[in-house]
Amino acid sequence: MGEPGRRFVDVGLHDSYSKPLGVPALCAERLETLPVLFVGVRCPLEVVWERRRSTWGQDRESADEDLRAAVEGWQETVHAHGPYDLEVDTSVDAPAHCADVIVARLQDGPPGVAFARLASLGPP
Questions:
Q1: Which residue among 26, 53, 106, 114 is the one 20 to 30 A from 10 at the CA level?
Q2: Where are the alpha helices (DSSP H) in the chain?
Q3: Who contacts 120 (Cβ-Cβ below 8 Å, separation ≥6)?
Q4: pLDDT tens by residue, 68-117
Q5: 7 lies in a domain?
C-alpha cells in the first residue's frame, strides 16, 4: 500500500461540534482534484463496548454519563453524512480482511464518488 504518489488517511469524518462547521463538505472540496475512496468502517455499538471492556476495562453499565455519551455519540455522528463508496464491518471480518477488501477496491475500482457528493452539499 505504500506505492509512490499514493496517500492514505484514516480519520473519523464528522461535523458534531458546538455548531456545524461543514467539515465533511470542506474536506471534500479540498480533495476534489484527488481520487478518494470514502470507506465506512462499521462496528455495532455492543461490540465497541465489548472491545472497550476487554481493552480498558470500560463497561457501559459502569461508565460515567460523559463517557457513554462520547462513545455512543461518535458511533452516530461519524456515519451521519450519508453513503460511502465502500463499507466494511470489523465485527464480522478481521482487520486484515477489511484491509484486503479496501486494497482490492482501490486496485480494481470503480473509483470513489461519495466525496464528490459531500462537496456538492457545501458548508451549512
A1: 53
A2: 23-30, 45-56, 65-77, 95-108, 114-121
A3: none
A4: 999 999 888 888 877 899 999 999 999 999 999 999 999 998 989 988 88
A5: no
Question: Domain range holding 44?
Answer: 23-121
Residues 6+ apart with CB under 8 A from 9: none
Set of cell numbers at residue 8: 492514505
- What length does the chain have? 124
Number of separate domains in the chain:
1
**Cell 453524512 appears where?**
81
User: Is 15 among the domain residues?
Assistant: no
Tell whether 11 is covered by a domain. no
Nearest C-alpha neighbor of 46 from the set 67, 71, 65: 71
What are the angstrom distances between the C-alpha of 25 and each of 13, 61, 85, 101, 115?
10, 36, 16, 26, 8
Which residue is associated with the grid cell 466494511? 88
**Residue 87, domain member (yes or no):** yes
Partner residues linked to 41 by β-bridges: 88
Lowest mean pLDDT segment, chosen from 8-17, 89-98, 114-123: 114-123
Query: Does 110 sit behind a cis peptide bond, omega within 30 degrees of 0 on the bond before it?
Result: yes
